[in-house]
Amino acid sequence: MSTAMNFSNKSFRPRPPDKGSFPLDHFGECKTFKETFMKCLKDNSYDNSMCRLKAKEYLECRMDTQLMAKEPLEKLGFKDLMDKPRQENEVNP
């Protein structure tokens, strides 16, 4: 009887992390967004209120690349930055 364990029978299925978990971006998929956000913070004396749009773009990238769980941006505090719905009486250009 063999006591060796065979791990190749199990398959690993990756899933998005739970809210609040931020795995490393090993492939640099969101590196540009992160660097833009960090530069904005530095340029604005680390006043994050001045960089909310950059933060939103960075989080969108992380959600799009499954580096964090998809979450409505309104729940992440970006309701005021969301596109406003078009009015019915607007004329199409």
The poorly predicted ranges are: 86-90
What is the H/E order? HH
Rg, rounded, reads: 20 Å
Beta-strand share of residues: under 5%
Name the helicity range: 25-40%
pLDDT average, as an integer? 79
Q: How would you describe the shape?
A: globular
Your description of this structure?
There is one protein chain. The chain has 93 residues and is an all-alpha fold. It has a domain at 26-79. Helices cover 28% and strands 0% of the residues. The protein is built from two helices and no strands. The longest helix is centred in the middle third of the chain and has 13 residues, at 31-43.
Give a quick summary of the entry:
Keywords: Cytoplasm, Disulfide bond. The protein has 93 residues and is an all-alpha fold.
Features:
2 helices; 93 residues; mainly alpha; single chain; 28% helix
Provide the fold topology.
Blueprint lengths: L30 H13 L8 H13 L29
